[in-house]
Design goal:
The structure is a single chain. The protein starts with 5 loop residues before the first strand and ends in a 12-residue tail after the last strand. It is 37% helix and 22% strand. The protein folds into 2 domains: 6-254 and 462-481, Aldehyde Dehydrogenase, Chain A, domain 1; 258-442, Aldehyde Dehydrogenase, Chain A, domain 2 (3-Layer(aba) Sandwich), CATH 3.40.309. It has helices at residues 45-63, 67-83, 85-96, 100-120, 159-170, 184-196, 211-220, 233-245, 268-280, 300-313, 332-348, 402-410, 425-434, 472-475, and strands spanning 6-7, 10-12, 15-17, 24-29, 32-41, 127-130, 136-144, 147-151, 174-178, 204-206, 224-230, 249-253, 258-262, 290-296, 351-354, 373-376, 393-399, 414-415, 417-421, 439-442, 458-459, 477-485. It has a 7-stranded mixed beta sheet, with helices on both faces. The chain is of the alpha/beta class. It has 14 helices and 22 strands.
Length: 497
């Protein structure tokens, strides 16, 4: 007898509650669409109103809690994530499909982020600087902003929310969290852990539902002072427009069309390993995924032979199987999108060297699996080399030298991650300087960001903010300048000088 799916509720003002509408939606396993993971509230504007009201009411008290004390709660969150890591990783694999080794890494990123935030509780440094006048001190401090709307994607359903929520809380803000509708259960688990760690009521709230209903209500609410979003550039523009009208801060981490350069002197086997992981890790469903492979002509044929050989050998299936190397796409719609781009590539004149079909062997018939796909003879301006596909499709582009390689990699609306494989230190530094991207890896794939370093990109990849590391705390704080004059007389700054 099949186990009944869990019924989830919103978490508002310290209580688990149904949505006002009592409507629900089902969340399913992309590796086996017959399996229902959970049933979730289909929330409306009224639910967001309640959540924002709770967060606004909790803010004055929460902001007065000393930052090191707020950090202590996040340390407890980290410890609980460690205890429940395997449980959450298995849930994540069922919910969004990526293999168990990757979902363990996703949870580990949340653990690392929590411990980092705990440490930052004693490092929310301001600065002091000399005044231009005598007997006067100039001090800067960080102040929290208020209620923060957190809208996260489905591909990293623990890591990315922690990148946003933990710094927001550490800085003294309160949160209304909308997880992606494709991965709501992981969002619920994260909030359960925050509750168990002792977060005060109203400080964190989760509201399940669609972007059209819940997302729009968060964006347009006058009491939400900041929105942090990760997702497509199309949606990011919409968010920037709405936030701009209300003069509220927004942090946007958007799409990517990332390239890996392989020069003639590269370590061939290392470069193939990196390309394979960058292209097909998370089934290509990462904003940092490598979808353009830019290979110098001297190594081109040999490299492509090895790369395709390895792609053919990848084991595809349910990610809970420890031996599986690539899981399904998130849903049927995404698989259709990927296949549409494969057909576009063929029509553009690219040569399909491998893949390009649904993968439906054995138990995979019940899920949204797709073959690892490799195109060669791709022009730099082909749509498959310009548009984000978000699937296991690689466009291989041949170049004559480093200068052409940099020209090709920069020929993109996006600028998130990049990679170069070479054993020439001069060429490595040239690429690092000239590639237009927020991240460049030397002799490493385009994926693998670490939580204590800035993460983000240029051009259509975002609006200039950086998540991760110390820079994310600039998103969630306002700088306040304090002048202390102990001269016991009126000093008129520039007039007196």
């Amino acid at each position: 007898m099949a186990k009944k799916p869990k019924i989830y509720k919103n978490y508002i003002n310290g209580r688990w509650v149904n949505s006002k509408s009592d409507e629900t939606f089902k969340n399913r396993n992309p590796a086996n669409w017959d399996e229902i993971i959970g049933i979730f509230p289909k929330s409306k504007k009224e639910d967001v109103e309640d959540a924002v009201s709770a967060a606004k009411e909790a803010f004055p008290k929460w902001r007065k809690v000393p930052a090191p004390k707020r950090g202590e709660i996040l340390r407890k969150v980290a410890e609980l994530l460690v205890e429940r890591k395997e449980e959450i990783a298995k849930l994540m694999t069922k919910e969004m499909g990526k293999i168990i080794k990757e979902t363990r890494g996703d949870v580990q990123e949340g653990i690392d982020t929590a411990f980092y935030a705990f440490g930052e509780g004693r490092r929310l440094f301001g600065e002091t600087t000399p005044s231009e006048l005598p007997n006067k001190v100039c001090i800067t401090t960080r102040q929290p902003i208020g209620v923060c709307g957190i809208i996260s994607p489905w591909n990293f359903p623990i890591a990315i929310p922690t990148w946003k929520i933990f710094p927001a809380l550490l800085c003294g803000n309160t949160v209304v969290f909308k997880p992606a509708t494709a991965t709501p259960a992981c969002g619920g688990k994260l909030v359960e852990i925050l509750e168990d760690a002792g977060i005060p009521k109203g400080v964190v709230n989760i509201v399940y539902g669609s972007g059209r209903e819940v997302g729009e209500a968060i964006l347009s609410h006058k009491d939400v002072r900041l929105v942090s979003f990760t997702g497509s550039s199309l949606v990011g523009r919409r968010i920037a427009e709405i936030c701009g009208k209300g003069l509220k801060r927004c942090s946007l981490e958007l799409g990517g069309k990332n390239g890996q350069i392989v020069l003639d002197d590269a370590n061939l086997y290392l470069a193939v390993d990196g390309a394979l992981w960058g292209a097909f890790g998370t089934t290509g469903q990462r904003c940092t995924a490598m979808s353009r492979l830019i290979v110098q002509k001297g190594i081109y044929s040999k490299f492509i032979d090895k790369f395709v050989e390895r792609a053919k050998s990848l084991k595809i299936g349910n990610g809970l199987n420890e031996s599986v190397e690539m899981g399904p796409l998130i849903n049927e719609s995404q698989r259709e999108t990927v296949h549409k781009y494969v057909e576009i590539g063929k029509k553009e004149g690219a040569r399909l060297l491998y893949g390009g079909k649904f993968y439906e062997k054995g138990s995979c018939k019940k899920g949204w699996f797709y073959e690892p796909t490799v195109f060669v003879d791709v022009g730099p301006n082909f749509r498959i080399a310009q548009e984000e596909i978000f699937g296991p499709v690689v466009s291989v582009i041949e170049v004559k030298d480093i200068d052409e390689a940099i020209e090709v990699i920069n020929n993109s609306f996006y600028g998130l991650s990049s990679s170069i494989y070479t054993q020439n230190v001069n060429l490595a530094f040239k690429a690092a300087e000239q590639i237009e991207a927020g991240i460049t890896y030397v002799n490493g794939p385009t994926i693998g960001a670490e939580c204590h370093l800035p993460f983000g990109g240029v051009k259509d990849t975002g609006n200039g903010h950086r998540e991760g590391g110390w820079t994310v705390y600039d998103i969630f704080t306002e700088w306040k300048t304090v002048y202390v004059d102990y001269s016991a007389k009126l000093q008129k700054a520039q007039i007196d000088t």
